[in-house]
Amino acid sequence: MNEGARQAREAAEKAVPKIQAAVSDATYWLGYGVSFAAVFSYKVVTELAPEPLKTGGRDGAQAGKKAAEDLAGSFKSPSPEASPAPEPGPAM
Predict the structure, then answer these.
(1) How far apart, in whole angstroms, are the C-alpha atoms of residue 44 and residue 41?
(2) Is the residue at 89 inside a domain?
(3) Is residue 88 part of a domain?
(4) pTM confidence score
(5) 71-76 — which CB contacts under 8 Å span 24+ positions?
(6) Residues 46, 54: contact at Cβ < 8 Å?
(7) How do residues 25-49 score in pLDDT, each as one tens digit?
(8) 36 lies in which domain range?
(9) What's the rounded Cα separation, in Å, for the pair 38 and 32?
Protein backbone atom coordinates (compact mmCIF):
# COMPACT_ATOMS: atom_id res chain seq x y z
CA MET A 1 0.00 0.00 0.00
CA ASN A 2 2.86 2.40 0.79
CA GLU A 3 4.41 1.66 -2.61
CA GLY A 4 1.16 2.59 -4.37
CA ALA A 5 0.89 5.83 -2.42
CA ARG A 6 4.49 6.72 -3.27
CA GLN A 7 3.91 6.07 -6.98
CA ALA A 8 0.73 8.15 -6.95
CA ARG A 9 2.54 11.04 -5.23
CA GLU A 10 5.39 10.91 -7.78
CA ALA A 11 2.93 10.87 -10.68
CA ALA A 12 1.06 13.86 -9.22
CA GLU A 13 4.30 15.78 -8.70
CA LYS A 14 5.19 15.27 -12.36
CA ALA A 15 1.70 16.19 -13.59
CA VAL A 16 1.20 19.43 -11.64
CA PRO A 17 3.79 21.55 -13.56
CA LYS A 18 2.38 20.33 -16.88
CA ILE A 19 -1.16 21.22 -15.81
CA GLN A 20 -0.04 24.64 -14.59
CA ALA A 21 1.73 25.31 -17.90
CA ALA A 22 -1.36 24.25 -19.87
CA VAL A 23 -3.63 26.51 -17.80
CA SER A 24 -1.19 29.41 -18.19
CA ASP A 25 -1.04 28.94 -21.97
CA ALA A 26 -4.81 28.67 -22.24
CA THR A 27 -5.24 31.84 -20.18
CA TYR A 28 -2.78 33.72 -22.37
CA TRP A 29 -4.46 32.67 -25.61
CA LEU A 30 -7.91 33.45 -24.25
CA GLY A 31 -6.77 36.97 -23.36
CA TYR A 32 -5.05 37.34 -26.73
CA GLY A 33 -8.12 36.20 -28.65
CA VAL A 34 -10.56 38.41 -26.75
CA SER A 35 -8.29 41.46 -27.10
CA PHE A 36 -7.67 40.83 -30.79
CA ALA A 37 -11.37 40.42 -31.52
CA ALA A 38 -12.31 43.56 -29.61
CA VAL A 39 -9.63 45.80 -31.14
CA PHE A 40 -10.05 44.41 -34.66
CA SER A 41 -13.82 44.92 -34.54
CA TYR A 42 -13.41 48.42 -33.16
CA LYS A 43 -10.91 49.43 -35.83
CA VAL A 44 -13.01 48.01 -38.68
CA VAL A 45 -16.08 49.84 -37.43
CA THR A 46 -14.24 53.13 -36.89
CA GLU A 47 -12.70 52.98 -40.36
CA LEU A 48 -15.79 51.91 -42.32
CA ALA A 49 -18.81 53.14 -40.36
CA PRO A 50 -20.71 56.32 -41.26
CA GLU A 51 -20.49 59.21 -38.78
CA PRO A 52 -24.00 58.76 -37.26
CA LEU A 53 -23.12 55.15 -36.33
CA LYS A 54 -19.87 56.31 -34.74
CA THR A 55 -21.68 59.00 -32.74
CA GLY A 56 -24.30 56.52 -31.58
CA GLY A 57 -21.57 54.09 -30.58
CA ARG A 58 -19.79 56.75 -28.50
CA ASP A 59 -23.02 57.78 -26.79
CA GLY A 60 -23.94 54.16 -26.11
CA ALA A 61 -20.49 53.44 -24.71
CA GLN A 62 -20.75 56.39 -22.32
CA ALA A 63 -24.23 55.31 -21.18
CA GLY A 64 -23.03 51.72 -20.71
CA LYS A 65 -20.02 52.88 -18.72
CA LYS A 66 -22.21 54.96 -16.41
CA ALA A 67 -24.71 52.12 -15.95
CA ALA A 68 -21.89 49.66 -15.14
CA GLU A 69 -20.33 52.09 -12.64
CA ASP A 70 -23.72 52.63 -10.97
CA LEU A 71 -24.36 48.88 -10.78
CA ALA A 72 -20.88 48.16 -9.41
CA GLY A 73 -21.32 50.94 -6.86
CA SER A 74 -24.53 49.37 -5.59
CA PHE A 75 -22.63 46.14 -4.81
CA LYS A 76 -19.81 47.83 -2.92
CA SER A 77 -20.22 48.29 0.80
CA PRO A 78 -20.19 51.91 1.90
CA SER A 79 -16.88 53.18 3.19
CA PRO A 80 -16.59 54.01 6.91
CA GLU A 81 -16.20 57.71 6.09
CA ALA A 82 -19.40 57.74 4.03
CA SER A 83 -21.74 56.57 6.79
CA PRO A 84 -21.96 58.34 10.13
CA ALA A 85 -21.10 56.40 13.27
CA PRO A 86 -24.17 55.09 15.10
CA GLU A 87 -25.27 57.06 18.13
CA PRO A 88 -24.65 55.20 21.38
CA GLY A 89 -27.89 54.06 22.99
CA PRO A 90 -28.86 54.53 26.61
CA ALA A 91 -26.73 52.55 29.05
CA MET A 92 -28.45 49.69 30.79
Answers:
(1) 5
(2) no
(3) no
(4) 0.45
(5) none
(6) yes
(7) 999 999 999 999 999 998 988 889 8
(8) 2-65
(9) 10
Residue type, 42: Y
Asked if residue 72 belongs to a domain, the reply is no
Split into its structural domains, the chain has a count of: 1
d(CA 79, CA 9): 47
**Is residue 71 included in any domain, yes or no?**
no
Phi-psi region of 88 (alpha: psi -120 to 50; beta: other; left: phi over 0): beta
d(CA 49, CA 43): 10
**Contact call for residues 45 and 37 (beta carbons, < 8 A):** no
Please name the residue ranges forming H helices in 49-79.
51-75
Q: Count CB neighbours of 49 within 10 A.
A: 13
Nearest to 46 by CA among 36, 35, 58: 58
